Amino acid sequence: MSDEALVAGAKMGRGSVFDELHERHHKRMFRVAHRITRHRENAQDAVQESLLSAPFEQEETVRSQLASDMMQEATHRSHRISWWG
Questions:
Q1: CATH code, domain with 50
Q2: Sequence-distant (≥ 6) Cβ neighbours of residue 76 within 8 angstroms
Q3: The domain containing residue 79 runs over which residues?
Q4: Radius of gyration of the chain (CA)
Q5: pLDDT in tens, 28-77
Q6: Count: domains in the chain
Q7: Residue 59 phi/psi, 5° resolution?
């Protein structure tokens, strides 16, 4: 099943398709988030938050939307950590 079909199912409330999206993309997203945050827990939080809050606009692919949202969330978390020390 394509990512786009999974997103359509997730929008209709099918929890199992969200799990499939997570399974497909979380490892790659975590690697990038960890490089940005340099903190394991913040990287995991950034990935989870981006998966839960992604609006999944039609003009972008699911993969690019997730990557964009995750990088913004990871950068935000990275700045927050470095600001607080």
A1: 1.10.1740
A2: 46
A3: 3-84
A4: 13
A5: 989 999 998 888 998 999 888 888 777 666 656 888 878 888 888 888 87
A6: 1
A7: -75, -15
